[in-house]
Structure formats: structure tokens, C-alpha cells
Design a protein that fits this description.
There is one protein chain. The chain is α/β, with parallel strands linked by helices. It has a single domain (about 5-160), classed as Metalloproteases ("zincins"), catalytic domain (Collagenase (Catalytic Domain)), CATH 3.40.390.30. Helices cover about 45% and strands about 20% of the residues. It contains five helices and five strands, in the order βαβαβββααα. It has helices at about 20-30, 50-60, 105-110, 115-130, 140-160, and strands at about 5-10, 40-45, 65-70, 85-90, 95-100. Strands 1, 2, 3, 4 and 5 form a five-stranded mixed sheet that branches. The longest helix is centred in the last third of the chain and has 17 residues, at about 115-130. The radius of gyration is 15 Å and the shape is globular. The model has no long low-confidence stretch (mean pLDDT about 95).
């Protein structure tokens, strides 16, 4: 069983269903990637100011963004190797890494893209989970297409 630990850096950030949506999306992404080993993911829900500060500190980018991913392992997309991963020896869980989601931005983008908050926050969690598993989209080449294809397939399973 996968553990998704969710914290907020501000009181009352998000909606009552946010934690459940994120957990379900992470589980769906891991299941779609064929990962059966117990894993652990830490999620921080924040706002523009919070994600801006993290983005500046850790990536040198002086701007907010919608989601950040901090993988603990160097994995090859689609080829999950539990032996190549950090493990919590107390729990037996594979430590995948951390994600940071800008909740107000999910609200705004859900409206902007006309698919709503539930789908947007779920998409951010799927997107970030794939980053934790080695996927990337920095170029317009095959790796970006591979990641977008996985995102689409996983989102279809969530029926949002």
C-alpha cells in the first residue's frame, strides 16, 4: 500500500476533497505504471507565494508555477526498478520523493481550461507522480510525447 502524506503550509488551503483527490491520483499513476511495491510520497499544498519561494530556492526560478516535483531516485520512465530506489527501512516503503501543488492555481486553471478544480488537482498529482518516476517533458521530442500519453491514459482511468 502506498502512503501519501499531505501537508498544507497555510490553514484552510484547498477544498475538503483535495487530499482524497491527490491520493487517488497518485495511486492511479503508480498502478498504471505497474508499481505494486509499497511507496511513499510527500505532498505539500501551497499557494503562489509558497511555490514561488520553493521554485526560487531549489530551481533558481524566480516565479510561481503550478506543480513542482522532487524525485529521490534517478529512474528510467516506464522501467521502474525498486532496487534502484531509496527505501524507508522502518516501513519497507520505497521513497519516491516530494511534490508541491499550488492550490489556488489549480482553482484558476480548472476554470481557465473549463474542466474544473477536481480534474486539475488530480492532473497535477498524476503529472508530478510521473516526474517522480523519471518522466520528463523539457523538450518537444519523444520523451514529452511519452509523458503526455501516460498522463492522458491515467487521467482516463480517473474518469474526471
Amino acid at each position: 500500500m502506498t502512503t501519501v502524506t499531505i501537508s498544507r503550509d497555510k490553514h484552510n488551503l484547498g477544498r475538503p476533497e483535495t487530499a482524497a483527490l491527490v491520493k487517488k491520483a497518485v495511486a492511479a499513476a503508480l498502478r498504471a505504471e505497474g508499481i505494486e511495491a509499497p511507496c511513499h510520497v510527500d505532498v505539500l499544498l501551497t499557494d503562489d507565494g509558497g511555490i514561488h519561494a520553493i521554485n526560487a530556492e531549489h530551481r533558481g526560478v524566480d516565479a510561481p508555477t503550478d506543480v513542482l516535483s522532487f524525485p529521490l531516485n534517478e529512474l528510467t520512465p516506464g522501467e521502474f526498478d525498486p532496487e534502484a530506489c531509496e527505501m524507508d527501512y522502518d516501513t519497507g516503503e520505497i521513497l519516491l520523493g516530494d511534490m508541491v501543488i499550488d492550490i489556488p492555481r489549480c482553482e484558476k486553471q480548472g476554470e481557465e481550461y473549463d474542466h474544473g478544480y477536481r480534474r486539475e488537482v488530480s492532473y497535477m498529482a498524476v503529472h508530478s507522480t510521473l516526474h517522480l518516476l523519471g518522466y520528463d517533458h523539457l523538450d518537444e521530442g519523444p520523451m514529452k510525447a511519452q509523458m503526455r500519453g501516460r498522463e492522458k491514459a491515467i487521467m482516463e482511468t480517473l474518469k474526471l
